[in-house]
Amino acid sequence: MSENQKKIRSFKKKNNENYVSFSHHLSHDVAKRLHHHRIFETKSHQEVVRVGIRDRFWKDLYHHALTVSWPVFFSVSIAAYIAINTVFALLYALVPGQISAAGKHVFLSLFFFSVQTLSTVGYGSMSPVGIHANMIATCEVFIGMMLTALATGVVFARFSRPTARILFSDKAVIDTSGGVPVLSIRMANQRISDILLVEIELSLSRLIITETGHPIRCFDRLNLIQDEIPTLRFSFTTAHIIDEKSPLHNKTIDELSAEEAEIMITVTGTDEALGQTVSARMVYSFDRIHHHHRFVDILMERPDGLIAVDYTRLNDVERHQNKSRSDGHIPA
Hints:
By secondary structure, this protein is α+β, with helices and mostly antiparallel strands.
């Protein structure tokens, strides 16, 4: 063992001494803190009020434009478009007689003239004839070109955002048919193009209470037999051996439930077609983990000799003959 590894192990040991087990009785104050912490973790970003930090909308406008939903994006865009044309229509109204062929409905005509000018369409039926109107039209054309370029870039960026399109099984399994318990999660690539240089990380997430009564989310890495694969073409099943080195070793379901334990999987790779990094993640609570089960095979050979991948069986599992332990422990 290297000197750095010894330091890391010593650091972990010292920090673990600061934590107390969930198995003993929690005080009312600690239980209240834990309850609020659980509620906090289940809330989305929109449901949590951030105190002491300001959302600088204009300084982070591009990020907001990329992350809002499509209905909000189009609603804000339409509202901004109408507002800009209304402002310029009012400016044209301040210089009466300098827009030719304004017609009876003056303001409405000026509004549609602004729409034509902002988009540089220019049908020709209306035009600026005075110096002030031409100056306003010049500013509007310049702003229109800038807004068109920015809107095109934002819409393209929203459409071109890379997504992994990785499908995870809706359950995890602990397979003990080989004599050693193995925690497995299956994933599948929904696209025709491969995902290259795939990195997989599996973690055990636990909510623990410090001696001061504060809840802390602790993440323990679950080592995989294979955490890197050169390509994800169809499907792949992760495998974590639950041995003496595993954070799950000798853990009971009651202990894990008390700690709000979850299994988190994160997958990162490069999309072969896009050439961009993509990622996906999934979280499994322990009521979604099936003990003494294994995934059924989804690869099969068709009568015509072709290989078929049956994605409809991605979540299908089967029970093997090993008997379950009755003491509530994770199989070991």
